[in-house]
């Protein structure tokens, strides 16, 4: 999945596959996680957030199931 680089102290890049509703996050540590069942609107909100880290913790982290790649 293609990821878009973002400016964040925790997150390096974010990608989304709208068809499978998969959100992929690459953290600055090098870890990559796929989050399942994430609607396009959530991705859009994430990408538009002033603080990607705050948005992640408030809206994604404990809300969607994930796998570490």
List the helices and strands and how they pair.
Blueprint: E1 4-5, E2 11-17, E3 22-27, E4 32-36, H1 40-48, H2 52-59, E5 66-68
Antiparallel strand pairs: 1-2, 2-3, 3-4, 4-5
Helix pairs in contact: 1-2
Structure commentary:
The chain is of the alpha+beta class and 69 residues long. The protein has one domain (4-68). It is built from two helices and five strands, in the order ββββααβ. Strands 1-2-3-4-5 form a five-stranded antiparallel beta sheet, with helices on one face. A hairpin with a 4-residue loop joins β2 and β3. α1 (40-48) runs antiparallel to α2 (52-59). The radius of gyration is 11 Å and the shape is globular.
How many DSSP H or I helices?
Answer: 2
Shape: globular
Helix content: 10-25%
Work out the count of structural domains: 1
Using the CA coordinates, give the radius of gyration. 11 Å
Task: Give the topology string: H per helix, E per strand.
Answer: EEEEHHE
Contiguous low-pLDDT stretches (5 residues minimum) are none
Distance between the termini: 12 Å
Helix- and strand-based class?
alpha+beta
Bin the strand percentage: 25-35%
Mean pLDDT: 97
Summarize the biggest pleated sheet.
5 strands, antiparallel
Strand segment tally: 5
Strand numbers in spatial order across the main sheet: 1-2-3-4-5
Salient structural properties:
single chain, 69 residues, alpha+beta, 5 strands, 25% helix, globular
């Amino acid at each position: 999945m293609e990821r878009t680089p973002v400016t964040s102290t925790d997150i390096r890049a974010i990608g989304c596959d709208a068809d499978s509703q998969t959100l992929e996050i690459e953290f600055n540590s090098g870890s990559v996680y796929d989050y399942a069942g994430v609607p396009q609107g959530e991705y859009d909100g994430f990408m538009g957030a002033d603080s990607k880290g705050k948005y992640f913790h408030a809206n994604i982290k404990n809300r969607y199931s994930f796998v570490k790649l």
